[in-house]
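note to self — DONT lose this again. spent like an hour looking for the file last time. sequence + predicted structure for the chain T wanted, 436 res
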Amino acid sequence: MSDEPLDWSALLQAVRTDYPTLYRAWFESLEPGRLIGGELRVSVADPAWLHYLREHCAQVFSHTAMELTGHLVSVRFESGEESVLDDPVRQQRQLRRLPLNPDYTFAEFVVGPSNRLAHAAGLAVCSQPGVLYNPLFIHGASGLGKSHLLQAICAELLRSSPDANVIYVACDTFVSEYVSAIEAGDLHTFRNSVRQADALLIDDVQFLANRESSQEELFHTFNALYQERRQIVLSADSPPSDIPNLEDRLVSRFNWGLVAQIDPPTRETRQAILQKKARLRGYEIPADVIDYVAEHVDSNIRTLEGTLTKLITQHKHCDKPLTLATAKEVLPPPAPVTKPLQVSDILQVVSQHFGIRLQDLLGRRRTRSVSYPRNIAIYLARKMTMLSLEEIGMHFDGRDHSTVLHAERAIQQESERDSATQETLAILTKQLLSRT
């Protein structure tokens, strides 16, 4: 079958226009696809690019090619040398790995004050794997770039040594495959597949909590790799010592190398991230729009990228210009931050409502004229604050947790049978909510 004519540039432009959230700037680096007998064949050298195209873009390229040619077209993304992970026989002998995201490279990682140490350590690990910072332990809240950095390390190690056995895996996958190996009576194969790694990178190791057997397995795997000077990189949402129910010997080993924290990005870093993400998709976003989004989205990078996706989608599919007005539609100004309710607020409102002195409310008198309002205040503190029983007791002249619990239950039972108590609670709750 001979090649059929296809305007590759026009196809890429159409994909960019019609599917802005899927388009990537590196599409321009792909070898032009060939249309052979109704099949569009696209050769892809980079394994991460190949996985992304196969997982997300097959229908997109097929549909676009059919619109350009007016004929039925299927698509096949192929590699001259398929990954060993695509070999079913080899795959049975390997721990199931996470595919690398082609966007998660050092080139696309925006460095700022919040992540500078972790980034520098990642680069150092790639220059001398198994020597510097082994293990490297990166921690931070969700969506701050830990997975990006781990995958960037993988990509760089493979770029430097294409034949290296680099394993990147989620902790829950490590645990589930370990359990499956036990059930199948094939622990030897599992252990060999992990302990032959040149580099082992495990994401979200906080999921080892309360998994004694899995911790035992990772402990021995860690020792085996460390003694062979194989690189180990781990990530979690907290430092090793703060992971609940993690064995002391694992905590100790995780601290052997470097523990690096990633904090939420500064506003300037968020601006740089937005610019980088936009250019990756082939867009230039005006500075005032970037600044507005960076100002109002400060939770994490994942939310930041989601907002950018909404903005580009509005631009392409709803004919909205990339202006500040569109950004405000996508991301309206946040509601005013509410002030958390304090026990002092509750005490003041209750004392005024019942006409008793604050000293009496906090004192030890047990007459109903005082104990009833006091119990009301304790009940409201339990329902309207995040304080523990002990913390609430400290606000009430050092009463213990059992006294606080008794007061809460007493008012709860009284409100269920007494409409006057229900009405009192409703009035006080309304007054307190107006203060937040």
